[in-house]
Write a structure and sequence with these properties.
The structure is a single chain. By secondary structure, the protein is an alpha+beta fold. The protein has a single domain (6-131), classed as Aminopeptidase, CATH 3.40.630.30. It has 4 helices and 5 strands. It has helices at 15-28, 37-45, 94-108, 123-131, and strands at residues 6-9, 49-55, 61-72, 75-85, 114-116. It has a 5-stranded mixed β-sheet with strand order 1-2-3-4-5, sandwiched between helices. Strand 3 and strand 4 (75-85) form a beta hairpin. The protein is globular, with a radius of gyration of 15 Å. The N and C termini lie far apart (45 Å).
């Protein structure tokens, strides 16, 4: 079944984007504050990040993700972050369309692989990632927090 959404890379920040991100992020994380227009402008303007959104047929933003592509001495590295689809649109192809578009962009940028992380409690998201070809890795993920 083809997705009824279209995916686009955000090129400018407007009030609709700020409102949509403000609505989507709490569905992903209860601890991350919603970014304002200045914060989103930094993300959109960075050469290392691309903010992708999924729009329904009426043009409303129903999902988003951030693609990070870095050129390092060891090669081009890519990661998909902050994937979230509005609860009322889950299971309708928006997540697959977003991740598919991000994979295409990452591989076109020269990345040989693309990483993403997902909490185990996000069962449907993890199932989608595996269906799309992502493999669970044996790794240690460390985090340093200044808080």
């Amino acid at each position: 079944m083809a997705s009824a959404v279209r995916v686009e890379v955000v090129e400018k920040v407007d009030a609709d984007l700020v409102e949509a991100v403000g609505s989507l992020l709490p569905q992903l994380s209860s601890t991350s504050p919603a970014p304002g227009s200045e914060d989103l402008a930094v993300v959109v303007g960075s050469p290392a990040t691309s903010l992708l959104v999924a729009r329904d047929p009426a043009g409303a933003i129903v999902g988003m993700l951030t693609l990070v592509v870095l050129r390092l001495p060891t090669g081009v590295k890519a990661a998909i972050e902050d994937v979230v689809v509005d609860g009322s649109h889950r299971g309708k192809g928006a997540g697959a369309a977003l991740v598919g578009a991000a994979l295409e962009a990452a591989l076109a940028s020269g990345a040989r692989s693309v990483d993403l992380t997902s909490r185990p409690s996000r069962i449907e998201a993890n199932r989608l990632y595996q269906k799309l070809g992502f493999e669970l890795r044996e790794t240690n993920v460390y985090r340093y927090s200044s808080r």
